Amino acid sequence: MQWERVGDQPEPDDMLVLEFGYETGDTIFMNDFIYGDYITDTIHEAGDTIFNPFIDGDFIILENFTDSGAVIPMPMDSIFGPEEIWNEVWSTGGCSLDEWLKADSLQYFKQVLIPINDPQYLRDNFQFRFRNYASLEDNGLTGLASNVDQWHIDYVQLNYNRTLQDSFPDDVAFVMPPKSLLKNYQSMPWNQFRQEELAEAFDNKLSNLFNDEDGTNVKYTYSVTKGGSIVKNYTSNNFNAYPYYHHGFHTYEPHATPPIDFQLPTDGTDSALFIVTHIFAKAGYNDARVANDTAIFEQKFYNYYAYDDGTAENGYSILSTNANPEASLAVRFKLNEPDTLRAVRMWFNHVLNDANEEPFTLMVWADNSGKPGDIIYSQSSMLPAHADDFLDFYTYFIDEPVALSGTFYVGFYQNHDVQLNIGFDRNNDARAHFLYKTTNDWKEPYLKGAPMIRPVLGKYFKPEGVAVSEIAESKPHCSVYPNPTSDEVHIVVAGSADKKSVRLYDLSGKLLTVKEFVSESETINLNSQASGMYILYIMVNDKIQEVTKIIKK
């Protein structure tokens, strides 16, 4: 079905390009810079000029407020490197999967053979690479313009004596990544796990890509380990797998849907990690692609719930066409014992000009007969943000712990028509567990996938830049005033000989200010900060003494 497809069709003007290349042996100027860290010794406002201490006459103009002690990357020197020659040797424009399937309902891939016979490429340092020329989504919706065109390249083979008839790789293969051990979640908190959360069986998508109509004798096993110790070893009979090109997937039940007929060993720890290893291979000793026979899944039981696998094939947005647009997204989770919500992690897509950075309200609802009911908690003025690592989630810290029990919902509310474009995992179907609202009624989604929203529960955990070992056991007297404040806040910590520091965070968990001092008091200026609530951490000898909410009027 159209709504269940993964990825986006490249448009006719998009292009997949193959290039051949090599190094000439010469060294050339690469027209780039090595950067060094420049630490400011004063507060700078937006528009200030900072001269580069590494290169005479070079300077930058700041776009944002910068506090004293901030680290600013500055160009240090130019880079020289090896000269490379790259030539385009093949390309194809975008087309639809439906065009391929008209000719053959099982032809999801097309083979392309590229001869390498030009003498310039017959060298030891020969290289090749694929490049993707993509277009942005252009439908006039603010916040939705991003790279959405996707190509799937597989079985890249460099070999001799290839022919046009050499079109079937001799391989048996996993078609999709392995699934979670759990019925509903990809991950869940270890203290919330119960044995009844386990699925009844795996759902493996397997195929035989040989072209032997008589089939291929295949074998399948899986194992589950924890810390190197065996939890489960599963073996099954070998079976004859017929070619995918004529028969479709390999559906022998002991291979395709092996049972999960065991329990996970539980203990008093706060987390657990199980490694699930699946092996699907040709029986015997003449398997041409042994490295392609193993698929591994890490079953994580940490401090969060997740329906998604951590990668976004698409973005999910809610469009309201009302004159005064309002929209909400709510993802359902179920606790097996009461717990405490500490934070919510979200993954947002990068879009053109960061156009999706519009405010939303972080929401937590109680359950009302299978739909969101009373509001348990809300936190306004949140913005889509991104972690430093592309695959990491951004953490929105809760300003106060939220006690929860039973079924609850986490999501967001927006009162504008900008597409927030939250990550959407299309490889896992969570349609039964989230709802959206653009009018007065909550509605079930029709797009297959899982919004990348993860509630974090349990005991207190560290903010950015603070280790768990940094929490102090004994605390000197601390005071913070005035609070609320319109400009400055003063911090007083008893004792003058200790190393002290303060760290100011916004409610998304972003570190705004760090100040160190040895006297009994320090002052933080909030003039450059917007009105709202902030979190202040007071540290002595690198250990947390007190955590206080600061209100800027």
In short:
The chain is an all-beta fold. It has three helices and 30 strands. The protein has four domains: 157 residues, no CATH class; 130 residues, Immunoglobulin-like (Sandwich); 144 residues, Jelly Rolls (Sandwich); 85 residues, Sandwich (Immunoglobulin-like).
Written overview of the protein:
- By secondary structure, this protein is an all-beta fold.
- The protein folds into four domains: 157 residues, no CATH class; 130 residues, Immunoglobulin-like; 144 residues, Sandwich (Jelly Rolls), CATH 2.60.120; 85 residues, Immunoglobulin-like (Sandwich).
- The protein has three helices and 30 strands.
- The longest helix is centred in the N-terminal third of the chain and has 7 residues.
- It is globular and about 80 Å long.
Secondary-structure blueprint:
Blueprint: E1 15-39, E2 49-51, E3 59-61, E4 71-93, H1 97-103, E5 127-133, E6 172-174, E7 206-208, E8 216-226, E9 229-235, E10 239-241, H2 244-247, H3 253-256, E11 272-282, E12 294-301, E13 314-316, E14 327-334, E15 339-346, E16 360-368, E17 371-382, E18 394-404, E19 407-414, E20 422-425, E21 434-437, E22 450-451, E23 453-457, E24 478-481, E25 488-493, E26 500-505, E27 511-517, E28 521-525, E29 532-540, E30 543-552
Antiparallel strand pairs: 1-4, 1-5, 2-3, 6-7, 8-9, 8-10, 8-11, 11-12, 13-20, 14-19, 14-21, 15-18, 15-23, 16-17, 16-19, 20-22, 24-25, 25-28, 26-27, 26-29, 29-30
